[in-house]
Amino acid sequence: MRSLTHFPDELLENIVEQLEDESLMQLSMTCRRFNFFALPTVLARANIDDGNITSLYLRDPPAHVVHALRLALFVQNLDSLGICFGGRTNTILPYARELCRLVSRLPSMKTFYMRFSHRVSPDALHPGWQVEVIRLLDLVVQKSCVFLYVDGGDGLSNALATGSQSRPTINPVGRVRRLLGHFRETMKSVIPPKLARLGGSRNHCHGLREFQARSFFLFHPPFIDWMISTLQTNSQTLTAVSFETHKTPASIWPDILSNVTLPFLSKFKLTGNLFIERRKLFGGYIMERRIVEFHDVLGFLARHPSIVDLDLYAITCPTNRCPPRGLLPALQNLRADPWLISSFLNRKQPFTFLTSLKVVSELYSDCRPFDYNTFDNALYLLPGGAPHVTALHISCYPEVGIAEWLDKHISQENSPLAALKGVTTLDLFQSWSMWRSDVRALIPQFLARFPQLQHLTYASPPPDVEKAKQTSFIREVMLACPGMKTVTTELGSPVNLDMLRN
User: Fold this and answer.
1) CB 42 within 8 A of CB 20
2) Which residues, in sequence order, are CB contacts of 472 under 8 Å at separation 6+?
3) Which alpha helices (DSSP H) does 193-335 contain, by range?
4) CA dist list (Å): 29 to 23, 34, 460
5) From CA 83, how far away is CA 61, in angstroms rounded?
6) Are 207 and 237 in contact (CB under 8 A)?
7) What is the three-class DSSP state of 389?
8) Which of 108, 180, 393, 413 lies most in the core, judged by the most C-beta atoms within 10 Å?
9) Shortest CA distance to 154 belongs to which of 203, 201, 119, 198?
10) pLDDT one-digit tens code per residue, 95-139
11) Comparison of pLDDT for 27 and 135, the residue scoring more
């Protein structure tokens, strides 16, 4: 044998098995024969199947694993990629660079999910990490990405607030022009000439459709410029946008909501800030709540009549003026605070297509009890404001006050529940306190106040609730509500009451 490459396969396999990952990576880059033996071993040790896979999720992988993926042949088949960075901030910059090389090898990218740990510390951040992360996200979008998710990274807040000297700058105008040029060239290749002459047509198979911005740093420079320009660049294809973040200054939201217009937006979710901070004022401290202003949200909604699914939480209380006539004409699903829902429903023109309504309770950081009576106004307005609602979802998260509110509706002759003749599905969710004995005993009579209720989804029981108690609860509901057809207490396991009756 003239060299190591001429060793028999069995002997090479034994040699490879004895080497550590870093040595295997060096060996795999020497020639094709060693690459064939070494690279699959590195991936197998990381529990990565090197077969014909199209989706891959990496949870805080070692650096050599990302490098190995870049060299692997099967990555050409990937169309969904996710990575979760751990708490080591010194890995963000090199990982972003390595991921850029990996993504550049892919012919296209359908889904990209990037998550930063909420416990990440800014101490070991490399200067310029923002530029590399933006470069990676840009490259992903240019690879015909359809679903883009960015999450986590709350611990980087101090780095973004104090690192102005090392913070890179972005020219949003130049970047928009560059991305628009790329977008137009892409659309030329997918829009038939006849449609192009007629002004073009949205093509949801080519272009970003859903963007979830759930990371703190996306709402700070330089990322906020990137985010706004990316949304505008892909405005003709985006149908779903979600903003979920914490510790975001209230002044940020007007810039975002006023500078973004998405003609085909169908699903919009905005979770404002529930963060409570102590702010010094006149020698003392007050609690300040940073949340999104209602009038800013209203202006955004007025520009987007195509919204079908709307999820708003922690918005400031609306003013007394009614929303503009014709607001959200296509709305089908609404999830919001009770006072926001009341503001929407309190208008002369009802929501014709609204069929699903979720009323959400609030959880206060200062342990104040939630006033469940605030649900009542929304329930009173529901028959007139949204007469075709068939599915009602009620959040009962804070446990204080639930029993009193249920008992009030049981004993109240003019309870708004009696007028909800169109509601056939009820979902009581989110809280284990729904299985307290005093609350559980009131539920059957509470449900009986609904005239046409047929399906109930109840909060999943805690581990200490025996199966016998669950069965007894379902039978009590069956006796109190003759028209009830199914009761679900465990996800995906509805109980057919008609079969129990027979």
Assistant:
1) no
2) none
3) 193-197, 223-233, 252-259, 294-302
4) 10, 8, 53
5) 8
6) yes
7) coil
8) 393
9) 119
10) 889 889 889 888 888 999 999 876 666 565 777 888 999 999 999
11) 135
